């Protein structure tokens, strides 16, 4: 049979041109041929007979876990082989080596030490890899032959709970989505906090909008979706999610329902408000199936599945979230100088995540908003109490994520000590809350259970400063367990004996420098310098020779060493067992811990909003059911913090039933976009229950905020700048209602003047006339002709951003005034931007030529010739809205 090579696609596969099946590893494991992606291991056909037992073990495990990089523990290292090694070496920038020196048998190999594993694992997860962690589950001393290894964890971005791998104030959502026709369902789980929710909708555009709001790090989809190019659809998320295509059986409704009933411990799901959520339940079932497969442990902290509806919250589509820079700065695509960054003064990670959740889902229920505002007002007025409360919060650990680690049996002894220390702060926090509280604060205070029993259980069990690892021993207090105390006493006596042995041997031998030492290889030994070797007695047994000394053992020392090491091993095993029992005991209180954590997070947010309101002179907005947005001396919350104190110019705005459409004109750089955005941001902040950057604000609750701002293309989706603009405009026109707020900054600038102006005019009219009431709209434009709408439509008002002009130069005043601007000052702005003087001079000449209507013999502007006036009777240029008769007159 000719020489063949080994190949792999889904699992390790052996490719043979004649045989489609080859038996490997004692001929018991069959690897079937597949025409899919293959890579060459570099091993020849007779290689199976030369495979080492360790490599056979690796191939067996890899065959069962083909998807993802297999991290295979070998002593103090994690090693990767074959294509996994090549991938890891490239993505981690580590050395790619070979397990065999013979070129024809070379096996690519790469690895990293266990003590640095978390760093490398984090980097691989950030790059979207699925990691299969295969650990040694017995020591070489315990093994009879090959050390046994098992897959202990499967890590992906959506199942991480280790705080070192997560951004403290950012959610880490694992989501699943499924749709049938135009109906869809989404479920999401935050394994690190226990959040488990689902929602459904009727429009696929709404599904994309919801996924953009959630920004999951990992998304489960049915296998049928692989026929479509979803990677492009999700490229605009930052970071884009890892897509996992799952069997359709994972999404099967009946199986998903049974899985959820079993997990939630109920015969029916109606009690959770889940009646009628068929697609959402399918998605939630797929998440549970995925978590079970990834061996994350039983997620008992996912104690409830909460349904929610998009219609319950203020609508924010992709364009609005991006244009208002709510979560990230548009230029850098990072958090600094975003709205969330500027208003986040929370003291705890769980409070930071709660604030982000509120910004992601602002409220529409007036009563709920007012309840939040009442608590913010309370904290703002009680400055001393607020400061003490926030100082105490600063010392708390992330109770939500720590609870998840406890339930998933990943918490360390130090984690439990951190929990104990945080719980010790609860009585002081409760004492800071007076009896007379606003209703929402009173309800939250009632949920701040002291959890004294949990605190005392940890305090009674663990030493104040235990080791990091649960396998090192030295975890528990003396007196906690009788058997453990006996083992501790035994090891202490034997260690004392060894210490006495050193003194005794020094006296008997006369070797003053003799030392009793220990290492993991030789155990306990006596070390004697070369200068004193002539004094060594006969009962010393030579063990090792060094450059300047020799090491010896004695029969008596080895006997005590055996007793001591046996006792220490028994002690460590018992401590491990006791700690696991204690951790499970604490995990049984997950529901209570989560309730306290959620109450603390909410109070943290409310106190933080009060803190920034006090420091930045924010005003309490007056919200109402009626329509209208009236803002006095409003400021942009982000820009005013970037500018020097007093550098921001505030402005007023008054949108109401008599003035629903404001046409805003003025030059570039004058501040039109800033004013438009700040109105939208103030409305959004008011509806999360925050004070706002203004002297006063009256806000009628809006159902959606829409924005169309700036010029940007979307090459990934094959959309030009103008097409993106029209797509966003169409979305607004289809979904806006009289209760919406629409912010438009330039419509129609990506096409010809007449096309653009016509579109802008028609869009403005449509928004004015919608449902006979119009939509509250701010419309910034350089089409000055649009200002004529104020004479045609009753609810259109003109506003201009004022400038001062002197000797051809302009000064931006950044003040919003009634009326329409008559110039855009584009050439002056170009001069300020540094456009070369010859270009500015020529542009001014061309502008004057066009404005003067200087024409040549066939009616075109003389852009390249000296200007001249046409004789009376020549045909002149038509104005945009002038008839030939009007032009000739």
UniProtKB/TrEMBL annotation:
It comes from the Bacteria. Keywords: ATP-binding, DNA damage, DNA repair, DNA-binding, Nucleotide-binding. Pfam families: MutS_I, MutS_II, MutS_III, MutS_IV, MutS_V. ATP binds at residues 666-673. The keyword DNA damage applies. Signal peptide: none annotated. This is DNA mismatch repair protein MutS. It comes from Desulfobacca acetoxidans (strain ATCC 700848 / DSM 11109 / ASRB2). The gene is mutS.
């Amino acid at each position: 049979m000719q020489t063949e090579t080994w190949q792999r696609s889904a699992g390790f596969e052996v490719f043979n041109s004649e045989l489609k099946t080859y038996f490997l590893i004692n001929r018991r494991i069959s690897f079937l041929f597949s025409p899919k992606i293959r890579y060459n291991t570099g091993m020849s056909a007779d290689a199976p007979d030369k495979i080492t037992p360790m490599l056979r073990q690796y191939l067996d495990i890899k065959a069962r876990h083909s998807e993802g990089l297999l991290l295979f523990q070998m002593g103090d290292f994690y090693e990767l082989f074959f294509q996994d090694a090549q991938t890891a070496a490239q993505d981690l920038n580590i050395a790619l080596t070979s397990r065999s020196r013979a070129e024809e048998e070379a096996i690519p190999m790469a690895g990293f030490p266990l003590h640095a594993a978390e760093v490398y694992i984090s980097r691989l997860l950030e790059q979207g890899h699925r990691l299969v962690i295969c650990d040694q589950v017995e020591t070489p001393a315990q093994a009879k032959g090959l050390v046994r290894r098992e897959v202990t964890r499967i890590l992906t971005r959506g199942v991480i709970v280790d705080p070192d791998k997560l951004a403290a104030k950012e959610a880490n959502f694992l989501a699943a989505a499924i749709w049938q026709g135009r109906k869809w369902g989404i479920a999401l789980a935050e394994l690190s906090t226990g959040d488990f929710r689902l929602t459904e909708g009727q429009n696929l555009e709404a599904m994309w909008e919801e996924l953009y709001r959630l920004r999951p790090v990992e998304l489960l989809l049915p296998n049928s979706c692989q026929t479509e190019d979803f990677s492009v659809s999700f490229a605009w998320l930052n970071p884009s999610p890892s897509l996992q295509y799952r069997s359709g059986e994972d999404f099967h409704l009946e199986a998903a329902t049974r899985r959820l009933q079993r997990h939630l411990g109920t015969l029916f799901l109606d009690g959770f408000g889940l009646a009628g959520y068929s697609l959402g339940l399918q998605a939630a079932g797929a998440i549970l199936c995925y978590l079970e497969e990834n061996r994350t442990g039983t997620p008992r902290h996912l104690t409830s599945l909460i349904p929610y509806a998009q219609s319950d919250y203020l609508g924010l589509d992709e364009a609005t979230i991006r244009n208002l820079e709510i979560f990230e700065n548009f230029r850098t695509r990072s958090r600094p100088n975003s709205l969330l960054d500027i208003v986040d003064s929370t003291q705890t990670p769980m409070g930071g995540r709660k604030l982000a959740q509120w910004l992601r889902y602002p409220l529409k229920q007036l009563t709920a908003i007012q309840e939040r505002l009442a608590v913010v007002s309370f904290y703002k007025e009680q400055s001393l109490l607020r400061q003490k409360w926030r100082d105490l919060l600063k010392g708390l650990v992330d109770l939500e994520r720590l609870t998840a680690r406890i339930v998933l049996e990943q918490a360390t002894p130090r984690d439990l000590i951190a929990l104990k220390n945080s719980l010790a702060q609860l009585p002081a926090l409760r004492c800071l809350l007076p009896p007379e509280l606003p209703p929402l604060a009173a309800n939250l205070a009632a949920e701040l259970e002291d959890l004294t029993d949990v605190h005392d259980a940890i305090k009674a069990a663990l030493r104040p400063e235990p080791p990091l690892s649960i396998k090192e021993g030295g975890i528990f207090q003396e007196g906690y367990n009788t058997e453990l105390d006996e083992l501790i006493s035994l090891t202490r006596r034997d260690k004392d004996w060894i210490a006495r042995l050193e003194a005794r041997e020094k006296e008997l031998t006369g070797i003053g420098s003799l030392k009793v030492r220990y290492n993991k290889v030789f155990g306990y030994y006596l070390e004697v310098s070369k200068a004193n070797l002539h004094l060594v007695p006969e009962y010393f047994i030579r063990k090792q020779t060094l450059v300047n000394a020799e090491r010896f053992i004695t029969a008596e020392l080895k006997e005590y060493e055996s007793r001591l090491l046996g006792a220490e091993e028994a002690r460590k095993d018992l401590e491990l067992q006791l700690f696991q029992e204690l951790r499970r005991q604490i995990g049984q209180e997950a529901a209570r811990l989560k309730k306290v954590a959620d109450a603390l997070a909410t109070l943290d947010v409310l106190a933080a909003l009060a803190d920034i309101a006090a420091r930045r002179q924010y005003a309490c907005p007056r919200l109402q059911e009626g329509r209208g947005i009236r803002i006095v001396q409003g400021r942009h919350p982000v820009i005013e913090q970037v500018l020097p104190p007093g550098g921001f110019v505030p402005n007023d705005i008054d949108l109401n039933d008599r003035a629903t459409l404001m046409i805003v004109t003025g030059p570039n750089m004058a501040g039109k976009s800033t004013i438009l955005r700040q109105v939208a941001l103030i409305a959004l902040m008011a509806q999360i229950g925050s004070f706002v950057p203004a002297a006063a604000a009256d806000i009628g609750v809006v159902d959606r905020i829409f924005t169309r701002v700036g010029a940007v293309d979307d090459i990934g989706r094959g959309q030009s700048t103008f097409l993106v603009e029209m797509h966003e405009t169409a979305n607004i026109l289809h979904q806006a209602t009289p209760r919406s707020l629409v912010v438009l900054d330039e419509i129609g600038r990506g096409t010809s003047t007449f096309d653009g102006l016509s579109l802008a005019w028609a869009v403005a009219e449509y928004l004015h006339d919608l449902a006979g009431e119009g939509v509250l709209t701010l419309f910034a434009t350089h089409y000055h002709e649009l200002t004529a709408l104020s004479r045609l439509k009753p609810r259109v008002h003109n506003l201009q951003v004022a400038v001062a002009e002197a000797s051809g130069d302009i000064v931006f005043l950044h003040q919003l005034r009634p009326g329409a601007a008559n110039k855009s000052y584009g050439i002056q702005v170009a001069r300020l931007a540094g456009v070369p003087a010859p270009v500015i001079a020529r542009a001014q000449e061309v502008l004057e030529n066009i404005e003067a209507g200087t024409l040549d013999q066939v009616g075109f502007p003389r852009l390249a010739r000296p200007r001249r006036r046409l004789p009376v009777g020549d045909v002149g240029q038509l104005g945009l809205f002038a008839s030939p008769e009007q032009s000739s007159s």
